[in-house]
Amino acid sequence: MLDGYDLLIPGPTTLDPTVLQEMVRPVVPHYGAAWTAYYQETIGLLKNVFDTSGPVFAIPGSGSAGLDAAISSCIGSKDRLLILANGFFGDRLAEIATSHFPETAIEQLSVDEPITDSRLLDALAKHPAITAVMVVHSESSSGLLNPIESLGALCRERGVTFLVDAISSLGGVELSMDRMNIDVCVSASQKCLEGPPGLGLVAVAPQAWSRMKAYATRGWYLSLQTWQRYADKWADWHPYPITMAVPALRALRRGLERVLDEGLSARWLRHREMAAWLMARTAALGFEGVFPENRASPTVIALRPPEGLSVETVMARLREDHNLLIAGGMGSYKGKAFRIGNMGVQASIARLQPFVDALELIVAQERSERNV
Ligand SMILES: Cc1ncc(COP(=O)(O)O)c(C=O)c1O
Question: Mean pLDDT throughout 249-272?
Answer without folding.
Answer: 98
